[in-house]
């Protein structure tokens, strides 16, 4: 929930999060299940109830990779419209990467940045040079899809890790432009959880935005989590919302991407697609006024 401020800025009035894991079945079936659609509707209705407490001018509802990849995406769009009266807009991969870039540009003083947003069903990678977006794309692998396809044992087997790494590396082969000097900026739930764990263990600031993670820290944490059982990971408070099931897949994607770059550390951004969309919306409103 946001209110416009001066010069296309905004103030956050309220913020809610409710994971529905739409990417859970996408990797293999390319279909959203009826249960997933019903759960999404229930969550949207809860959000509508909270939104009614405010004097809201506009509600925007956007969907990203999981819905974009679903063969029955129209079923979800129709159900949302019928049950809530809201129009669900499915943004394409370039828009998703662009909104990540807009969020980083407006919240971090970085001119050259490789922006990586690992989601459940896809990962967005963007390159900004001298404050301008040069490349932006989405690859159809995310924390959920990699975990579902490759990481099935408990604890994870080494052979499964090898298989997952090969899959990720294959999808990165053509992205030669990643091998350029730029600040590695990481977004998304996987890195939010990783940053939270590392900040707690290091007794560092609770404000996650702009926190720095070294490659060594990432590797050490991954090794510790990979040797733990699912139950053991579920007791880590930063993973308690179900992220314990997919955290390894997410970290694998990040670690394989950073190997393709000269970067030695990751700067975490707590702002992503949602905030980029809001920044862009208020910027357009300012230009029209």
UniProtKB/TrEMBL annotation:
<dbReference type="InterPro" id="IPR050273">
    <property type="entry name" value="GppA/Ppx_hydrolase"/>
</dbReference>
<protein>
    <submittedName>
        <fullName>Exopolyphosphatase</fullName>
    </submittedName>
</protein>
<feature type="domain" description="Ppx/GppA phosphatase N-terminal">
    <location>
        <begin position="8"/>
        <end position="283"/>
    </location>
</feature>
<comment type="similarity">
    <text>Belongs to the GppA/Ppx family.</text>
</comment>
<dbReference type="GO" id="GO:0016462">
    <property type="term" value="F:pyrophosphatase activity"/>
</dbReference>
<dbReference type="InterPro" id="IPR003695">
    <property type="entry name" value="Ppx_GppA_N"/>
</dbReference>
<dbReference type="InterPro" id="IPR043129">
    <property type="entry name" value="ATPase_NBD"/>
</dbReference>
<dbReference type="Pfam" id="PF02541">
    <property type="entry name" value="Ppx-GppA"/>
</dbReference>
């Amino acid at each position: 929930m946001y209110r416009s401020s001066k010069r296309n800025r905004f103030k956050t009035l309220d913020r809610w999060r409710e994971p529905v894991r739409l990417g859970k079945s996408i990797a293999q079936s390319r279909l959203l299940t009826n249960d997933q659609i019903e759960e999404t509707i229930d969550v949207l209705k809860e959000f509508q109830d909270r939104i009614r407490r405010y004097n809201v001018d506009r509600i925007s509802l956007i969907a990203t990779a999981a819905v974009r990849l679903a063969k029955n995406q129209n079923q979800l769009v129709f159900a949302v419209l019928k049950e809530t009266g809201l129009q669900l807009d499915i943004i394409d991969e370039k828009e998703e990467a662009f909104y990540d870039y807009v969020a980083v540009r407006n919240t971090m003083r970085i001119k050259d940045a490789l922006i990586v947003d690992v989601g459940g069903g896809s990962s967005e990678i963007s390159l900004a040079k001298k404050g301008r977006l040069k490349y932006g794309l989405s690859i159809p692998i995310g924390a959920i899809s990699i975990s579902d396809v490759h990481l099935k044992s408990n604890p994870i087997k080494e052979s499964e890790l090898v298989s997952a790494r090969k899959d990720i590396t294959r999808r990165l082969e053509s992205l030669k432009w990643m091998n350029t000097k730029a600040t590695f900026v990481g977004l998304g739930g996987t890195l939010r959880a990783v940053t939270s764990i590392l900040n707690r263990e290091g007794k560092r600031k609770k404000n996650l935005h702009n926190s720095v993670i070294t490659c060594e820290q990432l590797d050490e944490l991954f090794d510790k989590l990979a040797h733990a059982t699912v139950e053991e990971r579920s007791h880590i408070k930063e993973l308690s919302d179900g992220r314990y099931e997919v955290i390894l897949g997410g970290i694998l994607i990040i670690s394989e991407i950073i190997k393709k770059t000269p970067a030695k550390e990751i700067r975490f951004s707590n702002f992503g697609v949602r905030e980029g969309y809001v920044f862009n919306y208020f910027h357009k409103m300012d230009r029209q006024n």
